[in-house]
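Dear H.,

Thanks for agreeing to be a second pair of eyes. The structure we're designing against is below in token form, covering all 139 positions.
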């Protein structure tokens, strides 16, 4: 076949190749945005959404409290991890029952999330024999 004598038939391989290259470039750029330079950092991700409002520390661990809109979330972390030990975390909005996660864990208990609205809240955390309570507070 001579050039220009194709009877309307085009080479479809070339547009596919260009499309494949463009798609791979977009995927690569998307991975850079999602992964980013800080994605491999040593900082652990939070188990709760929102922003941290309080940390209750005690001898064997800590309970971290987060707030997002009208919700409170809490997680209790052990000071010494790796072996199973009794841990608990509870969040109670005034006038409601406490939501509790208690058991034998190696790292943390929770997360526990409660809708609080504008009510007073009590958060408790325990690892082994030591514990801490926030008392009734507004977050």
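And this is the sequence the design step returned. I haven't edited it by hand at all.
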């Amino acid at each position: 076949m001579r050039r220009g004598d194709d009877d309307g038939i085009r080479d479809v391989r070339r547009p596919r190749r260009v499309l494949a290259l463009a798609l791979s470039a977009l995927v690569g750029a998307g991975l850079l945005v999602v992964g980013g330079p800080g994605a491999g950092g040593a900082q652990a991700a939070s188990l709760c959404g929102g922003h941290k409002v309080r940390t209750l520390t005690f001898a064997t661990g800590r309970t971290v409290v987060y707030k997002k809109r009208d919700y409170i979330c809490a997680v209790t972390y052990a000071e010494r991890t790796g072996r199973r030990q009794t841990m608990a975390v509870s969040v109670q909005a005034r006038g409601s029952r406490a939501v509790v996660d208690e058991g034998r864990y190696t790292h943390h208990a929770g997360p526990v999330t409660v809708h609080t609205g504008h009510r007073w809240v009590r958060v408790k955390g325990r690892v082994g024999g030591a514990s801490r309570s926030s008392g009734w507070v507004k977050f």
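Two observations from my side: The first strand starts at residue 51 and ends at 58. Strands lie at 51-58, 61-68, 71-78, 85-93, 99-105, 108-115, 121-127, 130-133.

Warmly,
E.
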